[in-house]
Amino acid sequence: MGITFGRHSKEPGKAVWVIDWWPEGRNGPRRRKHFEGTREDAELYEQSVRSAAGLNRIGTAKTIFLTLEAVLPEYLRWHQLNRMPTTHADVKQSMPRLMQIFGKITVAQIKPGHITDFVSMRPDRKRSNQKEIHYLRGMITWMVKQGYAAPLHFKPETPKYHRPLPQVPMPGEVNAVLRQITDPVKKALIILMWTTGGRITSTAQIRWEDVNWERGTITVRVKGGRALQLPLPDEFRELMFDRRQTAGWVFLNPKTGLPLKSIKTILATASKKAGLPYKMTHHKFRHAYATDTLEATGDLRLVQNALGHTNISTTTIYTLVQTRRLVDAQDKVAEMRKGK
């Protein structure tokens, strides 16, 4: 809050003073009043305005220092209204672990040692630790905006997590699994994920209205609700054309009346029957699509668009998979030549 000289008054010994303050913080709107009188009177008036508005000396809202545990219920209510349901569920699940270390203290009391203590609880879960410290920072940011805390005075550091390369099935392995699946609807779902790179959460949500048989296209909605129009695979047409409907879910679970959520059990059984040394999962079809498409076209942007990645750095991991495949192939060639 500040008092500045505005102009001289017509009355001797007085002036018009300008009083400024920011009730919502420096990034919020500024409030201004003019006061005519002596400097001492202006200071008294400024104090009364500050007191009535509950402001501190610089004219911004007073910070109420609360513990993280005290504001957690309010934060979770806000988070549920403003974030995706899956994200909110994950944050809600992570909060009890965070509260074990940070719940009883205020943001001002958080020290780097508290971060170390939290990481030490699960030292082998580097990825989870990074994610949950990110959730902690999000909560602190919200607390600062609400006036419950001052900003954290340091950047929390966690052990670096190096994402492993995904396990990518070869085309022969996918076909071996498909031969073990007799249900045409579930088989069509797998083919669609393998040939379009879609996640099961988005592919299973496809409706008959999204399938254009004449144009040979299918509309898939990726993260964020963005719609992608992709070519309709011939194998999907062969399996589903005679089962086509005018509306409704394509991959309907008859028991629930809702789209299929998972095919883990079917894939695990089919993997075992096919003689695979690992269990096939629905997300491996997405990895297979990305790697095979990149290998066939060399077009990283094409793969990025098909997968719905907003950042191409997420897609570049498949270039490393491609390199690993080449190294494995060279090793096999070397072994074969030595055998000869």
Can you describe this structure?
The chain is mostly helical and 340 residues long. It has three domains: 2-53; 68-146; 171-333, Intergrase catalytic core (hpI Integrase, Chain A). The protein is 51% helix and 11% strand. The chain is built from 14 helices and eight strands. It has a three-stranded antiparallel beta sheet with strand order 1-2-3, covered by helices on one side. Strand 4 (211-212) and strand 5 form a beta hairpin. Helix 7 runs antiparallel to helix 9. The N and C termini lie far apart (86 Å).
Which runs of at least 5 residues are low in confidence (pLDDT < 50)? none
Mean pLDDT: 85
- How much of the residues is beta strand, in percent? 5-15%
CATH superfamily of the largest domain: Intergrase catalytic core
Level-1 CATH class name of the largest domain: Mainly Alpha
Structural class: mainly alpha
Number of domain units: 3
CATH architectural label of the largest domain? Orthogonal Bundle
- Give a quick account of the main beta sheet: strands, pairing sense, barrel closure: 3 strands, antiparallel
User: Order of strands side by side in the largest beta sheet?
Assistant: 1-2-3
Layout of secondary structure:
Elements: E1 2-8, E2 15-21, E3 31-37, H1 39-53, H2 68-82, H3 85-102, H4 112-121, H5 126-146, H6 171-178, H7 184-196, H8 200-203, E4 211-212, E5 217-221, E6 227-231, H9 234-240, E7 252-253, E8 258-259, H10 264-274, H11 282-297, H12 300-307, H13 312-315, H14 317-339
Antiparallel strand pairs: 1-2, 2-3, 4-5, 5-6, 7-8
Helix pairs in contact: 2-3, 3-4, 3-5, 6-10, 7-9, 7-11, 11-12, 11-14
